[in-house]
Amino acid sequence: MLRILTVVSMMIGAVYASDTALEEFVSTFDDLYRSSSSRGRMRMEITTPHWEREMEMLSWTHGQEKMLIKVISPRRERNMGTLKVGTELWNYMPRTERITKIPPSMMMSDWMGSDFTNDDLTGAYTLKDDYEVSLVQEDSEYRYFSAVPQKDRAIIWGELRIQVRREDNLPVKQEFYDEHGELVRIMNFKNIQTFGDRTIPATLELVPQDEENRKTVLHYLDLEFDVTLSQDRFSTAALREPVREE
């Protein structure tokens, strides 16, 4: 009887550990780059079989609802920008002085010629609220999770598979699968750095799987969380303004 109780106790303990690991992972992953507000500087490197391109940008966010990104280099693209309010996006082209609202039909189009899409920028979904997440494997260094969209969510991915470090739940790799189970792209998280009191992967490498020698790498050069920002920052008027480096 004592042996049976010991086995049952071990099983309950294993289930509790798995549930705890799952909750900690979801909380860490959802809030990794999120805060009440932020201000940052980024460099994006786009590599294709035919050309390479590099941009430097400034970004401001307010929660998950608002975001402004402005290009500061190269010079010919300076002041190009994107504004997000809720799930809506607008782009600004300084050469034509025109603001264009992105229609739903173009949400899966590339953003600024990169492998990120307009839909990626909206960040409308979280693991906690919109996915069914499960722990599928773990070893001494990593845990591996599967996230499947809830049935009533309009999410294009059939499944996300995410590898994280056991010690701190920081992501190492995220795989994106379509509804047919085909691997579409891979996000590699690299270059762990601390900005203020937050430690995050400062480099995100997005690699599409349908074309060789193509990738987009996003480097966070500087990042401040929970800063004071005027709500006027997130307006079409601010989108038109020439960028001022802070």
From TrEMBL:
Q: Which Pfam family would be a valid example here?
A: LolA_like
Key words, A-Z: Signal
Q: Which InterPro entries match?
A: LolA/LolB/LppX (IPR029046), TP_0789-like (IPR033399)
Does the record's keyword annotation contain Calcium?
Answer: no
| Signal peptide segment | 1-17
Residues forming the Uncharacterized protein TP-0789 domain are 63-240
Q: Does Transmembrane helix show up as a keyword for this record?
A: no
Quote the protein name from its UniProt record. Answer: Uncharacterized protein TP-0789 domain-containing protein
